[in-house]
Write a structure and sequence with these properties.
The complex is a heterodimer. Chain A is an alpha/beta fold. Chain A has 2 domains: 4-183, Thiamin diphosphate (ThDP)-binding fold, Pyr/PP domains (Rossmann fold, 3-Layer(aba) Sandwich), CATH 3.40.50.970; 197-323, 3-Layer(aba) Sandwich (Rossmann fold), CATH 3.40.50.920. Chain A is built from 12 helices and 14 strands. Chain A has helices at residues 7-21, 45-49, 61-72, 92-100, 102-105, 135-139, 152-164, 212-226, 244-254, 269-281, 303-309, 313-323; strands spanning 4-6, 25-29, 54-56, 77-82, 115-120, 145-147, 169-174, 181-183, 197-200, 205-209, 231-235, 238-240, 257-260, 290-292. By secondary structure, chain B is of the alpha/beta class. Chain B contains 13 helices and 7 strands. In chain B, the strands form 2 sheets. Chain B has a 5-stranded parallel beta sheet with strand order 1-2-3-7-6, with helices on both faces. In chain B, strands 4-5 form a two-stranded antiparallel sheet. In chain B, β4 and β5 form a beta hairpin. Chain B is globular. Classes of the chains: A alpha/beta, B alpha/beta. Chain A binds chain B through residues 30-31, 33-34, 36-37, 56-63, 86-87, 89-90, 124-130, 295-298, 300-305, 307-309, and chain B through 51-53, 100, 103-104, 107, 109, 111-117, 129-134, 162-163, 165-168, 193-196, 200-202, 268, 326-327, 329, 331-333, 335. The complex binds thiamine diphosphate and magnesium ion. Residues 160-162, 190, 192-193 of chain B line the site of magnesium ion.
């Protein structure tokens, strides 16, 4: 029987194997010695690799981010943990002014191979400062690569690719995915940055989804199928660079597009994809593109408001149906 | 005797000379109120009736109460993720706090903020932030506003030992001194920042010395002794109100429970059982109570009455919160003033 791991275990295994393979890999950030802080993803690292390579830090996001950058200039490959994206704003200057642009600014002569491991942790009435998903903001920044695994397999494979990449890579995972379980190979394998994955084939409509929204899109497909709508689901995996080839190919085939992302709407990931699709394959679109995103509001605390705030498979179903009226798709018998 | 050792000593009778019995009983009552409210909330979190993450102030009551006892409505208090105590001590309404914690429309932030974000602007509580260090510059800004209008007020920034890790803290101290603003920096040193002992994340062992680096009058106080906090706060707030600039206070205290939620953190290897027991045994409220009983400022009947009154008030607030409606989803559109 094939071995199965959860998403969190897959990250943990990737960290162990990466550190084992390359002495230059270090893990630094708040909570890395406290398994509950980063959701059991760092279990066993401290015992195996010691305090010199597993560095729990002061609450100093700005400086520690710069420290990881400076350390990378000496040949280290730091994996810098930000246990919540909301706490990263203090680190923006270092990430953007001092790392993302460094390679370009210095004539391509200096690299900063840092992985910003940025965790989305939301829901549970945590409110506005403990809920953010900032892929859209970071996507805006030249020089940063961004990945968002949605499966345990990708969680491991993309982390390996991120650490081996010579550019700064932001690896964004979501605590809502941590218990996802599937077969994860034991060896150290890679999932290429820049490649999306078709998770389900369909011809009536394309759903492009990021991270957790991929799960919701697949759930939506079960319902849509019963209504005679065959949706194709593309899991972005890589947010930047974007695999526009795969995205365009699907849209050309289906002519209808829903983009589902768990970030804010205005200037967000879904907005950018919508722009790129419009530029590249506008003539193939039979209907305007529909976005399923968060509303442009900070996250609320009350669960009554959270229910209205976070998009689910229901929003995707509604969006898909709005594009596929009865006459335009064949009904299933 | 170190300040920490002094946290276990009986409160000196002479230290209350000059404080009116009424004031003493009122502070006792407020500490007890915070204690009981947090205890009720902790139980409701354990029963999952309350979902919003609650960082309980249990153990630290003397700091909020001793400082806020000197504040007027139009003095400002800025707080953190651990804000229930500051809110109540500044006079915040209990019913709207409870309703907020239950995510109800009648909450002080209409259910949008939850436990970490509570406000009552009319009482000088313009908001609490869960971003470590986040409200320190806001307090400095309020100090600037006060000084622009030459008002006889202060802005108080409550923050934890962990916040001394953030750069924004140092930038704020500098500006407050530079412009001589009426800001009281209260660093509640409870020795822990989540799972980390302060000695593992802060190179400076005496936090008040950081204030001195910026030429700010800086003090260390036994934050487990309400009288010492009260006395020091009186002096410093008066100075600040006279336009003499900021003051920095490091108050030693102890958070009884884990970083978040009602658990005691005894099974996590973060801190020793003996340490927790020591602080609980030397309970800050019990020591005040012993003094007040001994000095006949309080008697057992009065004590019972206070307990009974507080329990009733809290139960009523919980009932109010539970019976209140949830906010409507239209609320999500209210993002602009
Ligand atoms: C910018 C930022 N980084 C990290 C966190 C996570 N966090 C929440 S509270 C806390 C520790 C704060 O410790 P301290 O300032 O001593 O306050 P205490 O919890 O002891 O009251 C941390 C690290 C955060 N909320 N904000
Ligand atoms: Mg602390």
């Amino acid at each position: 029987m094939k071995r199965k791991l959860t998403y969190a275990e897959a990250i943990n295994e990737a960290l162990h194997q990466l550190m084992q393979k390359d002495k230059n890999v270090i893990v630094i950030g708040q909570g890395v010695t406290s398994p509950w802080y980063v959701g059991a993803t760092t279990v066993g690292l401290l015992d195996k690799f010691g305090e010199k390579r597993i560095i729990d830090t002061p609450v100093s996001e700005s400086a520690i981010t710069g420290v990881a950058g400076g350390c990378s200039l000496t040949g280290a490959r730091p994996i810098l943990v930000h246990p919540r994206m909301d706490f990263m704003y203090y680190a923006f200057d270092q990430i953007i002014n001092h790392m993302a642009g460094w390679h370009f600014m210095f004539g391509g002569k200096v690299n900063m191979p840092v992985v910003f491991w940025a965790i989305i942790n939301r829901g549970g009435e945590q409110a506005a400062q403990h809920s953010q998903a900032l892929q859209g903001l970071f996507m805006h920044i030249p020089g940063l690569k961004l990945v968002m695994p949605s499966t345990a397999y990708d969680a491991k494979g993309l982390l390996v690719s991120a650490v081996e990449d010579n550019s700064p890579v932001m690896y964004i995972d979501d605590r809502w995915l941590y218990s996802q379980k599937e077969h994860v190979p034991e060896d150290l394998y890679r999932v290429s940055i820049g490649k999306s994955q078709i998770r389900r084939k369909g011809k009536d409509l394309t759903i492009i989804a990021s991270s957790y929204m991929t799960l919701k899109a697949l759930e939506a497909c079960e319902v849509l199928e019963n209504e005679g709508i065959e949706a194709e689901v593309i899991d972005l995996r890589s947010i930047k660079p974007l695999d526009t080839e795969t995205l365009c190919k699907s849209v050309k085939k289906t002519g209808r597009l829903v983009i589902a992302d768990g970030g804010w709407r205005t200037c967000g990931l879904a907005a950018e994809i919508s722009a790129q699709i419009s530029e590249k394959v506008f003539n193939y679109l039979k209907k305007p593109i529909v976005r399923v995103t968060l509303p442009d509001a900070p996250a609320p605390a009350s669960s009554a408001l959270e229910r209205a705030y976070y998009p689910t498979e229901k929003n995707i179903i509604k969006a898909a149906k709005s594009l596929c009226n009865k006459n335009s798709v064949r009904r299933k018998k | 005797m170190s300040i920490i050792e002094s946290c276990s000593k009986p409160i000196n009778k002479d230290s209350i000379k000059g404080i009116s019995p009424k004031q003493l009983v009122s502070m006792y009552e407020m500490m007890l109120k915070i204690r009981l409210v947090e205890d009720y909330i902790g139980r409701m979190v354990a029963r999952r009736e309350v979902k919003t993450p609650c960082h309980l102030y249990l153990g630290q009551e003397a700091v909020a109460v001793g400082v806020c006892a000197h504040l007027k409505k139009d003095d400002f208090v800025f707080s953190t993720h651990r804000s229930h105590g500051h809110y109540l001590a500044k006079g915040g309404d209990l019913k709207s706090l409870m309703a907020e914690i239950f995510g109800k429309a009648t909450g002080c932030c209409r259910g949008r903020g939850g436990s970490m974000h509570i406000a009552q602007p009319s009482l000088g509580l313009p908001g609490s932030s869960a971003i470590v260090g986040g409200t320190i510059p806001l307090a400095v800004g309020a100090g600037l506003g006060i000084s622009l209008k030459s008002r006889p007020n202060v802005a108080v920034a409550f923050f934890g030992d962990g916040a001394t890790n953030e750069g924004i803290f140092y930038e704020s101290l500098n500006f407050a001194r530079l412009k001589n603003l009426p800001v009281i920096f209260i660093c509640e040193n409870n020795f822990y920042s989540t799972h980390m002992h302060i000695s593992k994340i802060q190179a400076v062992s005496q936090l008040y010395k950081i204030g001195e680096l910026f030429d700010i009058p800086s003090f260390q106080v036994n934050g487990y002794n309400i009288i010492e906090v009260y006395t020091l706060a009186k002096k410093t707030i008066e100075t600040a109100k006279k336009g003499k600039g900021p003051v920095f206070v490091e108050a030693f205290t102890y958070r009884w429970r884990g970083h978040v939620g009602p658990n005691w953190d005894l099974d996590t290897n973060i801190r020793a059982k003996e340490e927790v027991y020591w602080w609980v045994k030397n309970c800050t409220i019990k020591r005040l109570e012993r003094l007040l009983l001994g000095e006949k400022i309080l008697n057992s009947k009065k004590r019972k009455d206070i307990f009974r009154k507080l329990h009733a008030e809290i139960r009523q607030a919980i009932k109010f919160a539970k019976e209140s409606p949830y906010p409507d989803k239209k609320e999500l559109k209210d993002v602009y003033a």
